[in-house]
Design goal:
Elements (H helix, E strand, L loop, with lengths): L5 E3 L5 E3 L3 E2 L4 H13 L4 E3 L7 H11 L7 E6 L1 H6 L2 H12 L4 E6 L7 H13 L3 E7 L3 H9 L7 E5 L7 H10 L2 E5 L11 H10 L3 H11 L3 E2 L6 H8 L8 H8 L17
Parallel strand pairs: 3-4, 4-5, 5-6, 6-7, 7-8, 8-9, 9-10
Antiparallel strand pairs: 1-2
Helix pairs in contact: 1-2, 2-4, 8-9
């Protein structure tokens, strides 16, 4: 069964709400992507810095699924912003993926003072058809305001760390107001979140796993999710989130877990 639940981006393109993240799992990438595609996923999230674009491309070709039916995201790494090699970086990504275009190309981090100039190059790539859509990742409100004040194109997506301990309510509300879709990387947080009494209680109530409860909470918040896994069983488990719904009261219980706790780098203070 194809998982075709999607959200419409600000340019009219539809993006699947569930994708597979393949963060730095090069040796398992091919089998993970094939397992996900076999389970009905049609959205794969990769990045040049992960070092596995080639394996993603190979898996997609081996799957036999038409390219047009799969939504591919990749990202421009920080070093290429600093070096002024943004165009070359996209060409390298397309070559490794063995594709003529990506569905979504993101600025991976808000690298000062290069991200505005880099964005203009992404706009050109979009006009040339090498990226169907362009967006950003790890951008705070101040970064988004600076970007939008200096460009004609509003990002279609802001991919951010977002999970029950970091619900990003203020940033999500801002993005919603200006027409930017939020995608959550690390949507499940870390394993210790699974032991939260609220999540265990809801897992029991809905006869679901903790990860399914968390992903469903994200989906009902209109957040696209890209959980990473190299295990076929977990990939399938993570896909079974569209046949139940959390009540408003239970959504509020999940919202109450927020503690503004990051597991990843702070976009206002990173050094890579």
């Amino acid at each position: 069964m194809v998982l075709n639940q999607s959200l419409e981006l600000n340019n009219g393109i539809k993006m699947p709400m569930l994708g597979l993240g393949v963060y730095k799992s090069a040796e398992h990438t091919k089998e993970s992507v094939l397992a996900a595609l076999g389970a009905g996923y049609r959205h794969i999230d990769v990045a040049s810095v992960y070092g596995n674009e080639k394996e993603v491309g190979e898996a997609i070709r081996e799957s036999g699924i038409p390219r047009k039916d799969i939504f591919i995201t990749t990202k421009l790494w920080n070093d290429d912003m600093r070096a002024g090699t943004q165009r070359e970086a996209l060409e390298r990504s397309l070559e490794k993926l063995q594709m003529d275009y990506v569905d979504l190309y993101l600025l991976h981090w808000p690298v000062e003072p290069y991200y505005v100039a880099s964005w203009k190059i992404l706009e050109e790539a979009c006009r040339e058809g090498k990226a169907k859509s362009i967006g950003v990742s790890n951008f705070q409100i101040n970064h988004l305001m600076e970007l939008m004040a200096n460009s004609k194109t509003v990002p279609v997506v802001n991919q951010i760390e977002c999970h029950p301990y970091l619900s990003q309510q203020i940033l999500r509300s801002f993005c919603q107001r200006v027409g930017i879709q939020v995608t959550a990387w690390a949507p499940l947080g870390r394993a210790r979140i699974f032991k939260e009494p609220v999540i265990l209680e809801l897992a029991e109530k809905y006869k679901r796993t903790p990860s399914q409860i968390i992903l469903r909470w994200q989906i009902q918040n209109q957040v696209i999710v890209i959980p990473k896994s190299v295990h076929r069983e977990r990939i399938i488990e993570n896909s079974r989130i569209f046949d139940f719904k959390l009540s408003l009261e239970d959504m509020e219980k999940m919202d109450g877990l927020n503690r503004d706790q990051r597991f990843g780098p702070d976009p206002d203070n990173f050094d890579f």
